[in-house]
Specification:
Blueprint: H1 4-14, H2 28-36, H3 46-63, H4 67-78, H5 83-103, E1 110-118, E2 123-130
Antiparallel strand pairs: 1-2
Length: 131
């Protein structure tokens, strides 16, 4: 979901939906990190951590789609994944979508972009929400 054309299509599909509840204003970066918590094993390097954040961001955005559009969009996303990894990534995305819906069902913000900053002992995540 990194290119601007993809974001515009995503926004067009979702613009009729309420993106943020008045009572749901937690930092999106913290929520994305919370989504990946069960998947963080050991001490991931920056690349591994960025891949987790990317998967979580994609799952977050997919969770905002109606079910039919969600499945179609997920299939498009998975076309970019090597065949040998497709089943694993699909499973992870589905788990992350369920987790997002359980933890933050009212948060309708769309992840526009993210950045991971290596601070030595840990990583800082900055997420820009589209509104």
């Amino acid at each position: 979901m990194g290119n601007s054309r993809g974001r515009k299509r995503l926004w067009k599909t979702l613009k009729h939906r309420k993106l943020l509840s008045e009572t749901d204003t937690g930092k999106l970066s913290g929520r994305i990190i919370e989504l990946i918590t069960p998947y963080r094993e050991g001490n991931p390097d920056r690349g591994e951590f960025e891949r987790l954040i990317s998967l979580a961001s994609t799952a977050w955005n997919l969770s905002l789609f109606p079910l039919k559009a969600r499945d179609e969009t997920m299939m498009k996303v998975l076309k970019a994944v090597p065949d040998e990894d497709r089943q694993l990534i699909r499973g992870l995305l589905q788990e992350l979508i369920v987790r997002k819906e359980l933890l933050f069902p009212e948060d309708r913000r769309l992840v526009g972009s993210f950045d991971v900053i290596d601070e030595g002992e840990n990583f800082r995540v900055i997420v820009a929400a589209l509104s």
